[in-house]
Specification:
A hairpin with a 4-residue loop joins strand 4 and strand 5. The protein is mainly beta and 128 residues long. The chain is 10% helix and 45% strand. The protein has a single domain, classed as Lipocalin (Beta Barrel), CATH 2.40.128. The longest helix has 13 residues.
Length: 128
């Protein structure tokens, strides 16, 4: 009986904060970046700049940290200037969850993760 109560409480808590929650669909920003979140914690990050396009197929991890906040990690990258590193980021969802603000720093561990959104660095992704 006590075990059932503990498991039920843990289950309720896990739906609120600190659990993996997939992001679905395609999200773009005005800077020519698109992220397509797929199944199995995989995504495609597509850059379109100056007539050139590059696509990175990388793992991602999203975890809720509050009602409108979370962490979003992209990587590790297997090539390019981010090879061997992961973007450790934070997310703030806008009302209706049709857009999110994202700020991240590249590194080999999550110690580089920003603790607050930096207005000069953040990107806003909108659902497509």
């Amino acid at each position: 009986m006590i075990l059932a109560a503990v498991l039920c409480t843990a289950g309720l808590f896990s739906f609120s904060f600190g659990v993996f929650e997939p992001i679905k669909g395609t999200w773009s920003n005005p800077n020519g970046q698109t992220i397509r979140f797929g199944k199995g914690n995989q995504c495609e990050w597509i850059f379109s700049m100056a007539g050139r396009q590059d696509t990175f197929r990388i793992p991602y991890h999203y975890e809720k940290t509050g009602k409108q906040t979370g962490i979003l990690d992209l990587g590790p990258f297997d090539r390019g200037s981010l090879k061997g590193r992961t973007l450790y980021g934070i997310v703030e969802w806008l009302p209706g969850r049709k857009a999110f603000k994202y700020d991240a720093e590249p590194g080999k561990t999550d110690k580089v993760r920003p603790t607050a959104l930096n207005a000069d660095q953040l990107q806003v992704y909108t659902r497509q």
